[in-house]
Amino acid sequence: MSETGAAAQFTLLGSAGDPIDGADPRLAELYAYPDDLRRCWVRGNMIASVDGGATADGKTARLGAAGDRAVFEQMRYAADVILVGAATVRTENYSGAQVPVDQRGARQARGQAEVPPIAVLTRSGDLDPGSRFFTHTEVTPLVFTCTARLHDTRTRLGAAAEVLDASGADPDDVDPAVALTALADRGLLRVLTEGGPVILGLLIGRDLLDELCLTIAPYLVGGAARRIADGPGEVLSRMRPAHVLSDADGYLYTRYVRSR
User: Fold this and answer.
1) Is the overall model pTM greater than 0.90, yes or no?
2) What NCBIfam families does the record tag this protein with (predicted)?
3) With b meaning 16 or more CB within 10 Å and e meaning fewer, what string describes 225-257?
4) Looking at residue 101, which CATH number applies to its domain?
5) What integer pLDDT is reported at residue 123 of this predicted model?
6) Residue 2: which residues within 8 A CB-CB, separation 6 or more?
7) Is residue 145 within 8 Å of 170, Cβ to Cβ?
């Protein structure tokens, strides 16, 4: 065996302890945000096939199952705000977040609003005010667009959304750091981003992603399925594993936190 192989140490993950179901308080503890935040903590939640595909037939929903849905909901319950891109809103047919009564009480006890708003990053502002995203929600969405499209977007969406300027130095572009500062000013520090790949790639490239929760679905999709992150920027950000869960359907639920 090579010196490298002899030096490596491995741990075989097993089923130690009692199973954790979706209603178990331990699941909430696993996905709790850090205490005493002073800035936005950005968590990404994505799903991918074993061979790295972020979608099947163009949608993430084809890859999911009951366990993935439970983890997805738990992360939403823990967040102050959910951050997505306009393409995800359109492709996944988004509506507002749904929070059951018991979780609303838990959120209130943590000093959070009962239902987290959804914030959208969109350079073009091209969103349909008649879509489910605006008509099936308890909380007015936040739409972050660029300076150049601000007036047009406000005119198009009207009272359906609160439209905010998120341009930095370039009035034709959206700067995610500006959007995060605006969220922090509102006390929305626990940020959950559900993508898509362009938004996640943008956050990674700007060194704004603090952790990634990646569900690995037990499928091969092949073809030209996209990765979970996309964009021109390339970085090498060191992450450390916080936990790995598995279920009877063969899914893996990983959580990685950025090493400081």
Assistant:
1) yes
2) PRK14059.1-2, PRK14059.1-4
3) beebbbeeeeeeeeeeeeeebebeeebbbbbbb
4) 3.40.430.10
5) 96
6) none
7) no
